[in-house]
């Protein structure tokens, strides 16, 4: 990232960038304004007239003209209501969404039909589940902020997740790689050193301190979650180092290992692949073989598909979970059916531990034209269209398939969604510690390799020192820290979107929103989850968890 | 419950019980965690960095 003039994304670097000025101390419980966070009392009675809560989502059901679903952002209620009731609630909306949301939100379904007041019992129920309130918009926003701040505080305390980067070195030379400059510009060659075993010892001492800061009893420590990332973490030459890391982890309470790997040299790890070793690997395939081999290339320009595919088959046979990711834009979306057929031809569809999914390419650097990209909603629509025409496409998960499955699970188990509600977008804002070969600690794995952007470091004696300004900046970002997210009715599912993209879209300000069509995506996923639930469609077979955090 | 309105998840969910429900979720370690492969998948699909099962 740093030093690569092609990149539009820049991590905020404070004046004090790089300075380690404080021991590790998690941010305290605080309101968005920095005041001490009070306990959640019952919601205020409110001082206004009865109105629809600002946090109601209205979900149209495509095959049901009589009913709709209502869901509520902070109470977690999901209800099927007659259109008459939905129209009544919508008639009590206090005008259009607040101004900051224009342009960021997708429009809600329109109000239709005559407004009829429902029975008193239904009205009482609408109040109890949060859809109706006497709180003014401002009072409710303040109450929501308390709830979300409480969720964020609890989330910050959870068990940390570790990403270890044994090296920034890689054996491929993909033109679009965000770390390309490290391998092609001699000024960055110092970054290509691999982690030493002494450094592993130092990092594990530091992880003890981080665990302790998160309130973990070191004598009864649950297994850690460790993701191996690079560069390429599973180079054949790194095998002794990876063995040492796994041994250290086993000696300190155990760990679940996952890896993000290009899989070109995975054969060197055959005996440690599987549920008790490296349990899960994510690999990127850039299309059918001939297309992939134009993009994911070795330094001599040769392609990598055949070698990767052999290793994927081997890993699947060993019981490792393989997640194949395809980065998709307008140019390659039409090639997906050919790739799906390739998966079938190789028999990967017969393994329950194989899954494939797509992600939208974003215009994150100057090599990517904005007009060539799809947003995540558009990508989902394109995949749905392909799935109708090509049976093999059933192998490829649409975006938001995880959300659909979680919501369906709520319906099937009649469960409380509180554990699913989130205050921030990803681990960069709560419990993730990305540690590189120099024992520098970063919040976000895409923002590594520049000591000026580190949130902390582990000293030779294992002491963890933090850059308190950067650490607090990353960990404070949540749905209450910008007005758009704070007022958004999808916020506890979206979490505010990726900080890096938000920053790019809003002139370098991380404390902003990145919506990516989330409103439409959420309503579509909830409607589909309900449709599957009612139809009794088979749920996806749950694979083994790859994360114990 | 009436034909006008039927809950699809917790039937006795009440806006007044939020603190208790938050504490319960935190106590079980489930708060916003990636406890299942579903959460893991959801997180990865939404992550900018081509990765992420360290979900928020």
Structure, briefly:
Chain A is α/β, with parallel strands linked by helices and 549 residues long.
Please characterize this protein's 3D structure.
The complex is a heterodimer of chains A (549) and B (56). Chain A has 16 helices and 17 strands. By secondary structure, chain A is α/β, with parallel strands linked by helices. In chain A, a hairpin with a 4-residue loop joins β14 and β15. Chain A is globular, with a radius of gyration of 24 Å. The model of chain A is unreliable at 1-16 and 541-549 (pLDDT under 50). With 56 residues, chain B is mainly alpha-helical. Chain B has helices at residues 18-27, 37-46, and one strand at residues 5-7. The model of chain B is unreliable at 32-36 and 50-56 (pLDDT under 50). Chains A and B meet through β5, α2, α3, β10 and β11 of A and β1, α1 and α2 of B. β5 (78-82) of chain A pairs antiparallel with β1 of chain B.
Alpha-beta classification of chain B? mainly alpha
Tell the overall outline of chain A.
globular
Which strand order does the major sheet of chain A show? 1-17-16-15-14-7-8-9-10-11-12-13
Low-confidence stretches of chain A: 1-16, 541-549
N-to-C CA distance of chain A:
28 Å
Q: Estimate what percentage of residues of chain A fall within beta strands.
A: 5-15%
The main pleated sheet of chain A reads as: 12 strands, mixed
What is the number of beta strands of chain B? 1
Silhouette of chain B: flat
Mean pLDDT of chain B: 65
What percent strand of chain B?
A: 5-15%
Number of helices of chain B: 2
Helix/strand order of chain B: EHH
Number of strands of chain A: 17
Assembly state here? heterodimer
Structural class of chain A: alpha/beta
> Which percent range fits the helix content of chain A?
25-40%
Taking all Cα atoms into account, the compactness measure Rg of chain B is 16 Å
User: Which chain pair has the greatest contact?
Assistant: A-B, 101 and 50 residues
